[in-house]
Amino acid sequence: MSNYSIHNxxxxxxxxxxxxxxxxxxxxxxxxxxxSFADIFAGTGVVAANNINSFxxxxxxxxxxxxxxxxxxFFGKGVWSKTKLADLVKSYSDLGPRQLRENYFSRNFGxxxxxxxxxxxxxxxxxxxxxxxxxxxxxxxxxxxxxxxYSADKIANTVGHYDAYRIRPNVEDRFNFxxxxxxxxxxxxxxxxxxxNNLVKKITPDIVYIDPPYNSRQYSRFYHVLENLAQWxxxxxxxxxxxxxxxxxxxYCKVAAFDNFSDLISNINSRKIxxxxxxxxxxxxxxxxxxxxHEQILSILRNKGSTQELSIEHxxxxxxxxxxxxxxxxxxxTTVA
Length: 337
Hints:
The structure is a single chain. By secondary structure, the protein is of the alpha/beta class. About 35% of the residues lie in helices and about 15% in strands. The chain contains twelve helices and seven strands.
């Protein structure tokens, strides 16, 4: 039974299918003196992971709590017992009816995002990780939590995010708990969960990679189930999609996006800035329309330094309400003046 790698996720805006092109572009525009690389809106973490052996230091940041746990599980230093975790996986696989009682997770998400049985198992495992914390070191706990997030997300009854679930008469039992495979790397890895605009004032990497959200879809709302599972505060939930009260909302998804991006770029202290961007500003869906235009991005970057523009055809996430034509992914590469 193979374990999960960092790229085994469904995630809106994931750069997995573009990773070869992005890495080639990074390599072509870096030089031997570039020792550190920062991914400050890291999402799935695949861009950082694919550069882990190319730099002496990697800085990875994202504002989602679930992503922060995943980064610490994959990239964090520390010893951990494979035998201990394998034994726990087996015990979770052998769960019987006595353990599968109603819990917070099954009451809220059973029959919706997951089958009733799967939701009970997920809730039981999450409670058990919390109750068993004294028998786990931080690395082991993070691996278990990340493994639960990956295992749950793998079988969720969704189109890839948690803004809604598929309406079905019966949601099938599909849950299978598997561990992630942590990444063994020689690079120094610094993991943050901060506002990127504040973080760039504290760090001085040679290269900064930037892939912020550009439209009104808030990631803390899109992935509220995983955020809930990671934090385990058990908040009261509302609406059909069973969301908590809004929290951790990004300014890049609001009308202030242009000002925030301008502030971000002006405060970066790096030799090279690489920005990912896609042209969903042409979308017919209001929630998909970009808050910052192509021309605005270029204007801000050109004020910072000499900027090149690269592009490639790429099929963007589409829930079926929008007709995208000539959709392209862009990379803006700025050499700071």
